[in-house]
Amino acid sequence: MFMLDPEGAHNMVIKMGSMLSHGPLLSLFSQSVEERPCDVMGLHFKNPLGLAAGLDKNGDAIDYLGALGFGYLELGTVTPKAQLGNEKPRMFRIVEADGIINRMGFNNKGVDYLVSNLIKRKYKGIVGVSIGKNEVTSLNDAHLDYIYCMQKVYAYCDYIAINVSCPNTVGLTALQDLEPLSKLLKVLKEEQQKLELCYKKHVPLVVKMAPDLNTEQIEALCHSCLENNIEGISCTNTTTRRDIIYGLNHASEWGGLSGRPLYALSNDVLKKVNSIIEGKIPLIGIGGISNAIEAREKMSNGAELLQIYSSLIYKGPAVIRDIVNNL
């Protein structure tokens, strides 16, 4: 797979996973892991390790990915309308550091396509959907895109992640500032209450934050989440920092950096958020987890749930079993 360019390899995996998800061979690729049940955000997870958003944006390979042993899957990020994303090449491996830089730009087939795959899935585990805004939508109207996606996916998923921290969509991270974030969360909570009455189902909202915020910004985001009764916070998205990979191949490419280089930075943010939240909101630890010890450290720093992406690329599905069985 590593002989292919990163995005080509990614597309091949999703295409293979899509075929397996709808065929009789799925059991050959399933992976048994030990039970590590936990209850978070009012949801029951068979284990706390999930797939991070970005790998299966359109829900094409839900059943295949679910068979690998994850406790839950986060799909997306999805936008109201389909969009191509940024120009290629837009994904780069930092092989020496087990890292990945991507500037995909919310490329996806639109929320209706994702919903069609959510309806067809046989996977019975927890599924979250990460939602965002289309690139052409102004920041002032961003809430309309989030509401639209929320209305579309609400009946077919278990939680909704509000992605305001991706560095690859121009201006998006400005939504993490206190005033726009509070405005967005307020209207989404109001919409959540309406949808809960409509569908007789409560779907928690999770805010995904960037690792590049300063202490004042972290405090403001946390207090906004508390004031608006947000049910979860993901720590963290990818980083724009390059100091830890300076001089390595592709280190100068712009975009979000994930994988092992993100580990320490995301842990620092997780610790700060945990000290502010004080257990009032469940935290999801994301960023650089590649083994059980790193997973345990995330949990000791306050994470109740975990997510991986880059380590799955570098280590394959066995990393899921190795982490879960040794938590």
UniProtKB/TrEMBL annotation:
<comment type="subunit">
    <text>Monomer.</text>
</comment>
<dbReference type="InterPro" id="IPR005719">
    <property type="entry name" value="Dihydroorotate_DH_2"/>
</dbReference>
<protein>
    <recommendedName>
        <fullName>Dihydroorotate dehydrogenase (quinone)</fullName>
        <ecNumber>1.3.5.2</ecNumber>
    </recommendedName>
</protein>
<comment type="pathway">
    <text>Pyrimidine metabolism; UMP biosynthesis via de novo pathway; orotate from (S)-dihydroorotate (quinone route): step 1/1.</text>
</comment>
<keyword id="KW-0665">Pyrimidine biosynthesis</keyword>
<dbReference type="GO" id="GO:0044205">
    <property type="term" value="P:'de novo' UMP biosynthetic process"/>
</dbReference>
<dbReference type="InterPro" id="IPR013785">
    <property type="entry name" value="Aldolase_TIM"/>
</dbReference>
<keyword id="KW-1003">Cell membrane</keyword>
<dbReference type="GO" id="GO:0005886">
    <property type="term" value="C:plasma membrane"/>
</dbReference>
<dbReference type="GO" id="GO:0006207">
    <property type="term" value="P:'de novo' pyrimidine nucleobase biosynthetic process"/>
</dbReference>
<dbReference type="InterPro" id="IPR001295">
    <property type="entry name" value="Dihydroorotate_DH_CS"/>
</dbReference>
<feature type="binding site">
    <location>
        <position position="288"/>
    </location>
    <ligand>
        <name>FMN</name>
    </ligand>
</feature>
<dbReference type="Pfam" id="PF01180">
    <property type="entry name" value="DHO_dh"/>
</dbReference>
<feature type="binding site">
    <location>
        <position position="168"/>
    </location>
    <ligand>
        <name>substrate</name>
    </ligand>
</feature>
<feature type="binding site">
    <location>
        <position position="208"/>
    </location>
    <ligand>
        <name>FMN</name>
    </ligand>
</feature>
<dbReference type="InterPro" id="IPR005720">
    <property type="entry name" value="Dihydroorotate_DH_cat"/>
</dbReference>
<feature type="binding site">
    <location>
        <position position="163"/>
    </location>
    <ligand>
        <name>substrate</name>
    </ligand>
</feature>
<feature type="binding site">
    <location>
        <position position="77"/>
    </location>
    <ligand>
        <name>FMN</name>
    </ligand>
</feature>
<feature type="domain" description="Dihydroorotate dehydrogenase catalytic">
    <location>
        <begin position="39"/>
        <end position="327"/>
    </location>
</feature>
<feature type="binding site">
    <location>
        <begin position="102"/>
        <end position="106"/>
    </location>
    <ligand>
        <name>substrate</name>
    </ligand>
</feature>
<keyword id="KW-0560">Oxidoreductase</keyword>
<feature type="active site" description="Nucleophile">
    <location>
        <position position="166"/>
    </location>
</feature>
<keyword id="KW-0288">FMN</keyword>
<feature type="binding site">
    <location>
        <position position="130"/>
    </location>
    <ligand>
        <name>FMN</name>
    </ligand>
</feature>
<comment type="function">
    <text>Catalyzes the conversion of dihydroorotate to orotate with quinone as electron acceptor.</text>
</comment>
<feature type="binding site">
    <location>
        <begin position="309"/>
        <end position="310"/>
    </location>
    <ligand>
        <name>FMN</name>
    </ligand>
</feature>
<feature type="binding site">
    <location>
        <position position="236"/>
    </location>
    <ligand>
        <name>FMN</name>
    </ligand>
</feature>
<feature type="binding site">
    <location>
        <position position="259"/>
    </location>
    <ligand>
        <name>FMN</name>
    </ligand>
</feature>
<dbReference type="InterPro" id="IPR012135">
    <property type="entry name" value="Dihydroorotate_DH_1_2"/>
</dbReference>
<feature type="binding site">
    <location>
        <begin position="237"/>
        <end position="238"/>
    </location>
    <ligand>
        <name>substrate</name>
    </ligand>
</feature>
<keyword id="KW-0285">Flavoprotein</keyword>
<comment type="similarity">
    <text>Belongs to the dihydroorotate dehydrogenase family. Type 2 subfamily.</text>
</comment>
<keyword id="KW-0472">Membrane</keyword>
<feature type="binding site">
    <location>
        <position position="163"/>
    </location>
    <ligand>
        <name>FMN</name>
    </ligand>
</feature>
<dbReference type="InterPro" id="IPR050074">
    <property type="entry name" value="DHO_dehydrogenase"/>
</dbReference>
<dbReference type="GO" id="GO:0005737">
    <property type="term" value="C:cytoplasm"/>
</dbReference>
<dbReference type="GO" id="GO:0106430">
    <property type="term" value="F:dihydroorotate dehydrogenase (quinone) activity"/>
</dbReference>
<feature type="binding site">
    <location>
        <position position="57"/>
    </location>
    <ligand>
        <name>substrate</name>
    </ligand>
</feature>
<feature type="binding site">
    <location>
        <begin position="53"/>
        <end position="57"/>
    </location>
    <ligand>
        <name>FMN</name>
    </ligand>
</feature>
